[in-house]
Amino acid sequence: MAIDQRFPRCRSSRLPAAAALAVLIGSVAPVVWAADAQAGKAAAQSKCVQCHEADDWEGESAASLESLIRDIVAGKVKHKGALQLSAAEVADIAAYWGQSSQKKNPKK
Predict the structure, then answer these.
(1) Is 63 in the same domain as 12?
(2) Are 89 and 43 in contact (CB under 8 A)?
(3) How many domains does the chain fold into?
(4) Can you say whether the dihedral through the CA atoms of 82, 65, 77, 90 is positive or negative?
């Protein structure tokens, strides 16, 4: 028995449209969710500048900083005070600090 006879709904004309939509969303999503270093600078200046400067993170990548900040927010890493940051703020601050770090240490 052919697969088309066992699964008649698989021949739906909606399937190509759904696949095209999935590809479109997948290709746009990274752009929509990309971290914003300028927003990160503003967030860091309003929430972190009391204790930290971008220079404090020299040599650290944005990815490692994002992981660290996420762990601090989650309470997994000890910090002077509790941090309440959204996922976007975490990514933005990490992008800002990571960008500043890479300008001073371009080999990494």
Answers:
(1) no
(2) yes
(3) 2
(4) positive
- The b/e string for 54-84 (b: 16+ C-beta within 10 A; e otherwise) is beebeebebeebbebbbebbeeeeeeeeebe
Distances in whole angstroms, Cα of residue 26 to Cα of each of 29, 31, 34, 50, 58: 5, 10, 13, 39, 33
**Structure tokens that stand for 22 in this block:** 């999935």
Asked whether residue 15 falls in the same domain as residue 64, the answer is no
Q: Is the pTM of this model over 0.85?
A: no
Cα separations in angstroms, 20 against 16, 25, 27? 6, 9, 11
Answer yes or no: do 46 and 71 share one domain. yes
Q: Which domain holds residue 87?
A: 37-104
What is the C-alpha to C-alpha distance for residues 68 and 61, in angstroms, rounded to an integer?
Answer: 11
Q: What digits encode the pLDDT tens for the residues 43-86?
A: 999 999 999 988 889 899 999 999 999 999 999 999 998 889 99
